[in-house]
Amino acid sequence: MAKTTLTISSKNYSSWSLRGWLLTKFSGLEFEEAVTAPDDASARAEILLLSSSILVPCLRHEGAVVWDTLAIAEYLNEIMPNAGLLPADRIHRAHCRSICGEIHSGFTTLRASLPVNIKGHFPGFKIWSRAQADIDRVCTIWRECLADSGGPFLFGERSMADAMYAPVVTRFMTYDVKLEPKLAAYARTIMAMPEMVEWIEAAKAE
Prior knowledge:
Helix content is about 55%, strand content about 10%. By secondary structure, the protein is an alpha+beta fold. It has a four-stranded mixed β-sheet, with helices on one face.
């Protein structure tokens, strides 16, 4: 049987790679990493700003080739149904899918003005008003989810939503975005996950 592989890009800069990698880790599916690293500044900038249409990450599993993080999430939920990538409750599942779709297709100003850079730290970073509007929307999503679920994750137990929003957490850490206590506690929960610790260590070693 062909081995399962996940093609990813830079662990320091690629938010989409982080999402796909976390989703696959959360699913429990064993896989090998295939890393494609950009070797020039223009390619790196493209990774920072490209939408989800980029063909990385890409999961190859038993003849299936799946790219786009939402497609990977749904595929993993299909083949690993006991992993809890989606909440058990129908209404919560719908909510989870909706906020995952929102982060997947929106927040372009947040991405452009606060690009993922795990090794970076910029205290006192000046945030544009349009980016602040994106930050406020993320905080509203988190606040509503945590109020409904009680935490520690967005839907109580870890789900695909936490993988989709994990790169936003790293952005908030990098650019010193101030969060209210409950949201800061959620951000710490995400950063303390063993999978995130592993990813961050690898990002710092790039």
